[in-house]
Design brief:
Helix 1 packs antiparallel against helix 2 (about 30-35), helix 1 packs across helix 3 and helix 2 packs across helix 3 (about 40-55). The protein has one domain (about 10-95): Arc Repressor Mutant, subunit A. It has helices at about 10-25, 30-35, 40-55, 60-95. The chain contains 4 helices and no strands. The chain is elongated. About 5% of the residues are buried. It is mostly helical. Pfam families: HTH_Tnp_1. This is Transposase. It comes from Microbulbifer echini. Belongs to the transposase 8 family.
Length: about 100
């Protein structure tokens, strides 16, 4: 049982399994939600999110993690590029 103010976290595999109850096993959303111990609104949202991931509208968990990693890696590279650009402009003036 959760205390007030805390939210349960569900793993992506759990969500996919819950959605499969509806899409592959012909459970109703309310029955599937009850079977896995979550609210029907959660299951509706997971179905919508999974459809968006499959259509390419939404990034899945792995793609989101990769995007975050690349953005983090890209930031210092952009700063270095800007510094080198300014340095090359400076040395171009000095060499004239």
């Amino acid at each position: 049982m959760t205390t007030k103010g805390t939210r349960r976290q569900f793993k992506p595999e759990f969500k996919k399994d819950a959605v499969a109850l509806v899409s592959e096993q012909a459970y109703s959303i309310s029955k599937a939600a009850e079977a896995v111990g979550t609210a029907a609104s959660n299951l509706r949202r997971w179905i919508k999110e999974l459809k968006q991931e499959e259509s390419g509208v939404r990034l899945d968990t792995g793609e989101r993690a990769e995007l975050d990693r690349l953005q983090h890696e890209n930031k210092p590279l952009r700063m270095e590029k800007e510094i080198l650009k300014k340095a090359s402009a400076f040395f171009a003036k000095v060499m004239k």
